[in-house]
């Protein structure tokens, strides 16, 4: 079966957003171009790592001798996006992701693939329910300014969760916290 590619070459918007309360949030990568909008679910850790790697890539590009790309060192103010995500219609839950650079268009390239279900037994038919989800991918190309803004917003969204315990480093729930800090 051919893979259905949700491709965005010059998106109007690409953001990480959440639905739910801290501790129960679902993270979404949401991309929009005109009327086309795609939302894929991902883990908080995937979001944080994605922002970190985008910033690392852009920071490395700045240091290249004779760099013909105008890579901003911080988020351009006109690209700051603090609006909530639109009501997500989840296309798939993200498993593997890849990040790259296209020097011909000066864009960061992000690919997201569905999480594969590894708990299938011999009686499961991969052409039955859920198989269509595995034949999708999201391909997003972001200009450098948009990528820098994406990384900044993502760090802020990830950091807006539950506070962490200063002793054990685990999140503190709204209904309390049992510290797992080892006694001396």
Overall structural class, as computed from helix and strand content, comes to alpha/beta
Shape: globular
H/E order of the elements?
Answer: EEEEHEEHEH
Oligomer: single chain
Distance between the termini: 58 Å
Tally of alpha and pi helices: 3
Low-confidence stretches: 125-131
What's the alpha carbon Rg, rounded to whole Å? 19 Å
User: Could you give the order of strands across the largest sheet?
Assistant: 1-7-6-5-4-3-2
Helix content: 10-25%
Strand content: 25-35%
Q: How many β strands by DSSP? A: 7
Short note summarizing the structure:
The chain is of the alpha/beta class and 184 residues long.
What order do the helices and strands come in, and which of them pair?
Blueprint: E1 4-8, E2 13-19, E3 26-33, E4 36-42, H1 44-63, E5 90-102, E6 107-114, H2 131-134, E7 136-143, H3 144-159
Parallel strand pairs: 1-7, 4-5
Antiparallel strand pairs: 2-3, 3-4, 5-6, 6-7
Question: Tags for this entry?
Answer:
alpha/beta; 3 helices; seven-stranded mixed beta sheet; 184 residues
Question: Care to describe what's here?
Answer:
This protein is of the alpha/beta class and 184 residues long. Helix content is 22%, strand content 30%. The chain is built from three helices and seven strands; from the N terminus they run ββββαββαβα. The protein has a seven-stranded mixed beta sheet. Helix 1 links the parallel strand 4 and strand 5 (90-102). It starts with a strand and ends in a 25-residue tail after the last helix. Mean pLDDT is 86; it is low at 125-131.
């Amino acid at each position: 079966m051919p893979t259905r590619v949700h491709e965005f070459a010059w998106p109007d918007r690409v953001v990480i957003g959440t639905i739910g309360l801290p501790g129960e949030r679902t993270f979404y990568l949401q991309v929009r171009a005109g009327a086309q909008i795609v939302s894929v679910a991902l883990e908080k850790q995937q979001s944080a790592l994605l922002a970190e790697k985008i910033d690392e890539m852009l920071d490395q590009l700045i240091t290249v001798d004779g760099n013909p790309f105008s890579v901003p060192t911080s988020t351009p103010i006109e690209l700051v996006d603090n609006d909530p995500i639109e009501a997500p219609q989840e296309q798939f839950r993200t498993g593997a992701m890849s990040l790259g650079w296209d020097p011909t268009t000066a864009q960061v390239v992000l690919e997201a693939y569905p999480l594969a279900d590894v708990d299938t037994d011999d009686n499961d038919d991969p052409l039955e329910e859920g198989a269509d989800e595995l034949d999708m991918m999201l391909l997003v190309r972001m200009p450098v300014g948009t990528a820098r803004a994406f990384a900044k917003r993502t760090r802020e969204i990830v950091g807006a969760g539950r506070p962490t315990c200063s002793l054990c480093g685990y999140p503190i729930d709204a209904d309390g916290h049992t510290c797992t800090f080892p006694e001396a």
